[in-house]
Amino acid sequence: MSANTSTTDAINPDHVQCVADAVGSAMSWVAGEEPKFDGEAAVAEALRCEGVVACISLVGDVDWSLVLSIPRATASVLAGRFAGFDIPYDSPDMGDAVGEMANLVAGEAKVSLDGIGLSTEISLPQVFRGDIIEVLKLPHVPSKLLAFECTCGPLWVAIAQSSA
Amino acid sequence: MSTVNALVIDDSGIMRKMVMRGLQEAGLCEFEFAEAEDGEDGLAKFNPRSTEIVFVDWNMPNMNGMDMVRRIRAQFPDRPVPIVMVTTEKLTGKVEEALDGGVDAFISKPFTPDGLQKRVGPLIERVLENKQQKKGGFFQRLVA
Question: Do B91 and A82 touch (CB under 8 A)?
Fold first, then answer.
């Protein structure tokens, strides 16, 4: 995938790698397979469909919002694999499941960042479900959009720096 | 097989279900579960007479798991009910903070039934032994 329109250079590539590793580790457990990291995604390629989005903050030596975006088809399969039982897409349990996935990603990112000497704390997640989820890039906000692919479909993780 | 009364506290209903299923799959004993959504709810549902083991998440709204554990330990110093922290926190400092604060075992999410069995098994044995002793004491008093 191309890497251009969604990124600035303000987020340290080592920190981005920590998040990519965290997604790999957390989602391996969730999905039973390690998702393929497709690199940085262009905004135009991301989501723009029905799906679920979970936002969680990491604050401390970094000050980030992590945003896990999962299209409906991917979410339905992932949530079932995660819980071990079917979770209807329209049920409250779907938000619960995706929120917990974001929590797991943030937990792994926290450990990864600690490994390079950065201390952080994790917020509680907020989850949104919508008919058309579209990633809109805010100007002047340093961010990265990372693309992943499981056998059950694509998912994205965005890192947005909350303060410089 | 003996039944153990467990209180499972997590703001995620899915995680509560996964913890309960994991415990059942671990095959340590039969469980009778009560559920709570946060620390406040957990404190309200903790029954010092009947709750035999507690599984609690750390990061929750209203009252987090560590604050709830400290409150239980302070309010019921004579009831050393085993408390297991089940959380995405996994750094050494957090584990130490939990153990110092009154947690008996620490399980990092994601967990497996094997991991649950390894950490929770000794605590369940302790609970079952206590039950057995209480039962034995009761019959001894009856005989005497």
Answer: no
B97 min Cα distance to partner chain A (Å) = 14
Locate A134 and state its tokens. 């579209």
Rounded to whole angstroms, how far apart are CA atoms A13 and A11? 6
Per-residue pLDDT of chain B (144 residues; tens, 9 = 90+): 689 999 999 999 999 999 999 999 888 899 999 999 999 999 999 999 999 999 999 999 999 999 999 999 999 999 899 999 999 988 999 999 999 999 999 998 888 888 888 999 999 999 999 888 877 766 666 666
B25 touches chain A (CB under 8 A): no
Q: Whole-angstrom Cα distance, residue A45 to residue A147?
A: 9
CA A47 to chain centre: 12
DSSP letter (8 states) at residue A154: E
Return phi, psi of residue B77, to 5°.
-65, -20
With CB atoms and an 8 Å threshold, state whether A107 touches B91.
no
Answer yes or no: do A107 and B14 touch at CB < 8 A: no
The tokens 């995660």 sit on which residue?
A: A82
pTM of the entire predicted model: 0.86
Contacting residues for B93 by C-beta, under 8 A, at least 6 apart:
none
